[in-house]
Amino acid sequence: MLLFVGLGNPGAQYAYHRHNVGFMALDDIVERHSFSPWKLKFQGRLADGRIGTERVLALEPTTYMNDSGRSVGEAMRFFKLTPADVVVFHDELDLAAGKVRVKKGGGTAGHNGLRSLDAHIGPEFWRVRIGIGHPGHKDRVHGWVLGDFAKADEAWLDPLLEAMAKAAPLLAERAPEKFMTQVAQATQAA
């Protein structure tokens, strides 16, 4: 069993923020792979499904980004999962918009959602880093991540989210390199 976690902030006012791209990615995966309807559990929204032969739980913490680890830790303990069974989808300033990288473990790079996860479950979970680009200067970062995607971003964002949902079976098979390759190939053609 795997736990796929999308990071974001709950509420309609945050739905299209760059910081919520983790929620967006997970929503597309849940829809594409016909997961159960969302239910409220573990201080978040939880859906259950299968991707390939693997049972996958999808969790979107409703605790707000800065306290995401509480929700994830609760779900992990209930299902007796290890950090290696957790795959977290999150925004990444240090990647060009539309790029995706997967790695296990690592630092938080100032990301409060990752910082909370590290505090609650440790750093050895899988991270699907979704590039949102950088605004150019550190003084503009806060407004950038908490701002909506621009209309022009749809040209790369929609194909990226679709490609990630389509390639999700490779994550479920624990083949992150193949996942990154398939997403890159699909989005280069777009």
From TrEMBL:
InterPro entries named among the record's database cross-references: Pept_tRNA_hydro, Pept_tRNA_hydro_CS, Pept_tRNA_hydro_sf
List of catalytic residues: 19 (proton acceptor)
Residues at the site labelled Stabilizes the basic form of H active site to accept a proton: 91
Record-listed tRNA binding positions: 14, 64, 66, 112
Site-annotated residues for Discriminates between blocked and unblocked aminoacyl-tRNA: 9
EC class (word): hydrolase
CDD domains xref list: PTH (cd00462)
Family to which the UniProt record says this protein belongs: Belongs to the PTH family.
Protein name as it appears in the record: Peptidyl-tRNA hydrolase
Species whose genome carries this gene: Inquilinus limosus
Lineage: Bacteria, Pseudomonadati, Pseudomonadota, Alphaproteobacteria, Rhodospirillales
Gene: pth
